Amino acid sequence: MFGPRRVLQSRLRLLAPQSISRSRLQASRNVSSVAPSPTTEPSKWPRRLVYAAIFGTLGSFAGKWMDEKVSAPPRPGSHEDRRRLEDIHHVYEHQLPIVKKLRNDPDYIEDNVYVNYSDDDKMNRFTSGLLRGSRGVAFQKIFWNDKEKKAVNIVYLGTGIEGWPTVVHGGALGTIIDEHLGRAAVRHLPERTGVTANLEINYRAPVFSGHFYTFYATLDQERSTDRKAYVTGEVRDPMGQVCAQASGLFVVPKKYELRTLGDRF
């Protein structure tokens, strides 16, 4: 006699192969019913052409930028130098918001620099001689506010006065700061002349070549006398960020006769 358990086991053995074969048959039917449909992939050439145009344009601009930065600056007075100076002057006249703002302010008078010097004198000076042309101190314009005793100098700094690549040399920048503070001092001193007795500069951010920068100078009227002029100033980039701060003392020597510079800049 077989017990109930053995009867149940025998029945399971008989059913197992059938269930497995049925599941396999069902799986094969499912696989065979899902046949891959033919698909057409879009052409990659339009995308490749777009990428080629983008990277080609970027490469061209990068090449021109590197050529301008690495190649020697144009010689002052050359055709290339004159062309660059014309472009710089055009930017000054039409693209600088600070120029438009100062011209619309009746308290400011616009003037050129080195007007008090002859052509021979300018050639023998550091900034107007050796640093002339688009490679150096390429452009300067002064705005003077006589009420506030404040001078604003718009300056274009060329690639020939770099210390590190693309960064203006700190000594060259200090020279321009010294001259600009001195202009505000000389306008105050009755003898219209003077020398630098003390100059302190704090460099706050890099000054990059190939751009316009704004130099400010303000006379300290309370501390200044007929023989001493205290002036503070700063340098700002095209976005208004302070790149340098400075203060200077300018004096008229008692035992050394200096040439009178004149009433202009």
Automatic annotation (TrEMBL):
Domain Thioesterase: 167-243
Signal peptide, first to last residue: none
Xref: CDD domains: PaaI_thioesterase
Protein name: Thioesterase family protein
Native source organism of the sequence: Aspergillus candidus
